[in-house]
Amino acid sequence: HHQLHRLPTPPDSWAMCFYTTLAEAAELAIETKRLETERLEDRQSLSLSVSQSPSFLRGLFSGGTLAYEAVLGLQAVLSPLYSNVPITAEQKLADPLVSQGHTILDLGEDIFTQGRLHPMMDNDLRLRRLRQEAADPETGLIWLDVVLGEGAHPDPAHELAPAIAAIKQDRPDLEVVVLIIGTDEDPQDVNRQMEAFAAQRPPSSATPPKLYSISPAVSPQSLSLPVSQSPSPLPSPPSTSASNPSTTVSSGKGLRRCRWNGVPRRVGMRS
Q1: At what angle do helices 156-170 and 190-199 cross, to 10 degrees?
Q2: Which of 52, 91, 156, 187 is 20 to 30 A from 122, alpha carbon to alpha carbon?
């Protein structure tokens, strides 16, 4: 005779279970029904919570490339998703001046830049939209990019960091993610920008803004920012060369060092 062992609890997913007695089979049926009921109640409770207190992502990007990539990466996991740089017709934002659902904005589009400088050079438009989104109780997370380099704003963190700190003072529950694109050789210096954002301390009840930088690899000791224990919520830049895929090389204090398309890169994070 083949010996059959009783499972302690029904597995989460299974096609067939074997038990030695009818009593054990009956116990399995009862336990399975109990688990299904609990899971259904959990799903209903979660659905009710979401419907009562919606929490949407609002992405405020200074240019179209990162905004488009954000839509491309998020469309599989967020719904409803709208943008003024949509990939599908259903994603088209009816009014770029008013967000709805999960919204990704390219603030460099003509509707925003007529009569004013591009948002890479002038933070005024983004500061006003940042406050507008923070005032919306449906906003749960704000994601913005900071692009460094020649021709960009000389010190974006000097204006953006205090604004984010003020928003966190009013809304400690609001999450803010800042993606910084630059190098330590840019006029703005990516290390100095990250330190300026990190120096803005929110109230003790609020979570600090999460900082992500994309720049050439440097000494991991250059920043004393702790590495987040959770995976990055932002998709890694897609590889454009089949021969040079994105691979993680090493990690250090406050930094995660990678190679993207064969080029050493560093991603710095603050949890």
Answers
A1: 20
A2: 91
